[in-house]
Design a protein that fits this description.
The protein is of the alpha/beta class. The chain is built from 13 helices and eleven strands. The protein is globular, with a radius of gyration of 19 Å.
Length: 273
């Protein structure tokens, strides 16, 4: 777990200004996060009790294995806040009409293409017959990177897309362990975990998408309108937790290990893909 922060560039929080408002009584907040180190600042803040210290009343704290599953949860009325990859957040807003706004960015990059080095020596080898490729379902950030790989390296979609097996990240890692995949487009921490089973990082998001925004903090528009002071506190905690992660990467890795185990048992979250 301590290696995960090498490939995930934790960035400074970019804040959208929010108007001032007089303090109000504690507002129940339903929060959802992704089950990966992209949400490191949220896991750290929860572990250290910083949300509570700021007077934020979390009525729920749910973990989802993919951004698409989290985006679906945002459509519910009881989730007002989410730490989510930017691509599924955009899909939730543009395609599902979920009234959310990005109030902070939490990191850049954090995705990669891992391959079996015995079968794949170059990106072009993805076109070889019989190559088994894993990726999350359509609409996820790594699915976008899959298509950017096709574009950048001028690969034939017809030779690749029909070989893609759609499954969530932990299932991809399990398939890699069992020898059922030759390549996988994965977010961190799953990409690094795949390396533990002999796979090699062939491409990262830095190679495919310079300055790619990874994950963001989104809130429902109603929360901004009715409780802007709550949103300010959320942004403040996010900034402080991000700064702490940058200063203490090894301790942050320990926190994530503890939080992932507490949230998902054997590092698998309760919410599906």
């Amino acid at each position: 777990m301590k290696r995960l922060f090498v490939l995930l560039l934790i960035g400074l929080v970019a804040v959208i200004p929010i108007g001032g408002c007089a303090p109000k009584e504690e507002t129940p907040i339903g929060m959802a996060v992704e089950f990966m180190d992209h949400a490191a600042c949220a896991y750290v803040a929860q572990d250290k009790g910083w949300f509570k210290e700021e007077g934020l009343n979390l009525s729920s704290y749910e973990s989802y294995v993919t951004g698409m599953a989290l985006a679906s949860a945002l459509a519910r009325g009881d989730i007002q806040v989410a730490y989510i990859c930017l691509v599924p957040a955009i899909n939730a807003y543009a395609n599902a009409g979920v009234p959310i706004k990005v109030v902070a960015g939490t990191h850049k990059y954090g995705y990669g293409l891992v391959v079996n080095p015995k079968e794949i020596k170059s990106v072009e080898d993805l076109e070889k017959p019989g190559i088994r490729i894993g990726c999350v379902r359509e609409g996820g950030a790594v699915d976008v990177l899959l298509h950017k790989t096709l574009d950048k390296y001028k690969l034939n979609p017809g030779k690749i897309l029909n070989k893609v097996q759609r499954m969530n990240p932990p299932k991809q890692v399990l398939a890699i362990k069992m020898g059922q995949l030759d390549a996988a487009f994965l977010p961190e921490q799953w990409a690094t975990m795949a390396e533990d089973f002999g796979f090699k990082m062939l491409l990262t998001a830095q190679d495919l998408w310079p300055q790619m925004q990874g994950s963001v903090l989104v809130v429902k528009e109603r929360l901004i309108a009715e409780h802007p002071e709550v949103v300010k506190k959320l942004v403040k905690v996010t900034q402080e937790a991000t700064n702490w992660v940058n200063r203490h990467p090894n301790e942050a890795a320990d926190v994530l290990t503890r939080q992932f185990s507490a949230t998902g048992g054997e590092n698998l979250p309760p919410k599906g893909s």
